[in-house]
Amino acid sequence: MVRAFPRVAVWLAVMLLFAAGAAMADTANLTFVDGNTVSGTFAYDVTQNKIVSWDFVSTEFNGTTFNSASANGQCFGFPCGGLALTNQNGDVVFGFDAAQPNANNALDEFDIVISCGGVANCVQSILLPLAGNGVGNSFALTAGQPACTPNAPNFCIASGEQQNLFNCLGVTCQVLLAGNNFLTITDPPSPGDVVVNMTLSSAPVGTVLNGNGGTTGVPEPSTLLLSALGLGGLALKRFYS
To answer: 22: which DSSP letter?
Structure first.
């Protein structure tokens, strides 16, 4: 039984190493409920609650792009989308529109909805007082269709992509994002800049910020690696002592 302990401990260490490797794997793609994916980032001005630029690539609807610097990011000669809106339940909506050349320049929309816990404008209100505007942390995205109250103010937008805004109606025109997706706050373009980069991620980074003022800690991959090495070392020490 004593000799079996090192083997069990080493196997546990190996499992932790695999878990750490998975945590460090590429998490850039978010998944829609139909299996398609989207990746990308946008620049957000914390002080003005304004989207400065964006670039997303989606495999939905035979492949779509949303890029503020490209021709398809122009609608009638003006930049499309890049709007910060508010849902009826207080969740923040970042919306992006773009004409799609592969669909006769039909206008598609990609929406990212932040879970604010009923607190309006939570992204700006959380990031403003944080040192570095929250760089290194995350926001959770909502999944599913939010509840709507007829004739109530504000919007009722879900996280997902909708095709051909002006001519396509019904559930076949919209595909929602699956659950467990995040928006990570990455490094500002330059020191002291109030513009932060917000990047889509299928795994949280740092602390998951929420509108109720609470936070959820996320174990770093390095913590898993140290745990695995420590456990393996303990097994060897016990075995040889």
So the answer is: H
